[in-house]
Amino acid sequence: MTTTTTLTTTTMMMVTMTTSRRGVTARTRILAWILLIVTIAVSVIVVATARSVLAGVQSGANTELTHEAEKFRGFASRPDPATGREFTSVRELLTSHLQHNLPEHSETFFSVIDGVPDRRSGGDPPVRLDLDAAFVAQATAAEEPFSANLSTSAGPVTFAVLPVEFVGDPQTGRLVIVEFLAPELDEAWSTIWVMSVIAVIALALAGATGWFVAGRVLAPIRELSETAARISETDLGRRIEVDGSDDVAQLAETFNRMLDRLETAFDGQRRFLDDAGHELRTPITVIRGHLELMGTDPLERAQTLALVGDELGRMSRLVDDLIVLARSERPDFLLLAPADLTDLVVETFAKATALAARHWTIDETPEVFAVVDAQRLTQALLQLAANAVEHTGADDSVAVGGAVVAGRLRLWVRDSGTGIPPEDQARIFARFARGAADMRAGRGTGLGLAIVDRIAAAHGGHIALDSEPGRGSTFVLDLPWHRPEEAP
């Protein structure tokens, strides 16, 4: 016994460890997919934002160049602000413009006259391009306005060269506008790095959140797997605790309902085998014993055959009742359909009157339609009628009736017979349970009322008993009333 227990415990630990490893693997896969998706999304956002910010820096510089060129053209079209006279030479125009147009931060202006740097705007630029001979030569060679980018020791710059000529003035000039991009680029890269750090933090948070959420999501599935691994035909009582109303919770509810059906089926099968084995053993023993002792005397043989036939008939009825009880556990036990309950009560009454000579009456009829299994309800009422016949005499009355009371459907069989003692009323609906009087008289198998109880339960109702010794009994099928228009 100890060895068996140890092996079982070890097996359960192995199952739990295997399930845990599978849960961690599934959790890791989910986390990997979450991180992959989030990483791709964040990377796309960071890259797109970086491209947009860097392009914005260049676009801003180009806009500023255009703005300065427009300002120079407007300045050249007006008289000199200092003298009020029109400009007469290239040098005069460029010098006056540089005096009156102060550069903003990260930009500088200077003029080139006949290939030689002439004047420069105020301020101290990051790099003196007017002292760069190669750059001055490039600017001097310009015959048309143009702009370009250039790499310098102070970082990248964007510049524009505007050629200037005056009719009658032999000199040629160039206005050079320089925009230094390094400060804006530094600010842009600072923004990009901040976004990258935020993205990394977001990935870490997404990973932690994903790990937590995946654990919460997979917890019912792990519990489902562990429960399924521990379930055996002798232990079907385990259930998964359902929390919430999401898809996983619905899966757990579905699994629990499946376990309910399995447990009901196994219990029904077990009860059927127990009942059949218990109740059939006695008649089989009786038959075998009489057949073994049967002699050659014709009278004795006839008596033995009559007894055997009686026992076989009882066995046949017992098997039929057991089959009905076993089927009552199945979902297809009932064949529901709209039925006229008045016809049901009247037809049951007509069939019951053939059972025995009694004062048969109909109390009342429901006068309604309902969705029920009419054959099963007729079977239940006839069983109650047969039970009433066994507990009444020829002078007693037996009544059948039905009504709708407070939205409930009630069908009953009432008799004026011997009644049922209080100590028997609580147990007569159990399988093979019989009242004291039935046991003394050897009546019945103890399955009839159990079948009636199962038919009522299958309809979603129950059977009620009102009985008093010496005053008769009333058995009532109390069922929910489903109208035909309410049927799915």
Range of helix content: 55-70%
Mass-distribution shape: rod-shaped
Report on the biggest sheet: 5 strands, antiparallel
State mean pLDDT (0 to 100 scale): 82
Radius of gyration: 51 Å
Report strand %.
15-25%
Q: Structural class, please?
A: alpha+beta
Number of helices: 11
Report, as a whole number of angstroms, the end-to-end distance.
54 Å
User: What is the string of SSEs from the N terminus onward?
Assistant: HHEEHEEEHHHEHEEHEEHHHEE
Number of strand segments: 12
The strands making up the biggest β-sheet line up spatially as 2-1-5-4-3
Q: Unreliable runs, pLDDT <50, ≥5 residues? A: 1-20, 438-444
Short description:
It is built from eleven helices and twelve strands. With 488 residues, it is of the alpha+beta class.
Question: How is the topology of this model organized?
Answer:
Blueprint: H1 2-76, H2 90-100, E1 107-113, E2 116-120, H3 133-140, E3 146-152, E4 155-165, E5 172-180, H4 182-230, H5 247-293, H6 298-327, E6 337-340, H7 341-352, E7 359-362, E8 369-372, H8 374-390, E9 397-405, E10 408-415, H9 422-425, H10 436-441, H11 448-458, E11 462-468, E12 472-480
Parallel strand pairs: 7-9
Antiparallel strand pairs: 1-2, 1-5, 3-4, 4-5, 6-8, 9-10, 10-12, 11-12
Task: Tell me about this structure.
By secondary structure, the protein is of the alpha+beta class. The protein is built from 11 helices and 12 strands. Strands 2-1-5-4-3 form a 5-stranded antiparallel sheet, with helices on both faces. It has a 5-stranded mixed sheet with strand order 7-9-10-12-11. Strands 6-8 form a two-stranded antiparallel ribbon. Helix 5 packs antiparallel against helix 6 and helix 7 packs parallel to helix 8. The longest helix is centred in the first third of the chain and has 75 residues. The radius of gyration is 51 Å and the shape is rod-shaped. The N terminus is likely disordered.
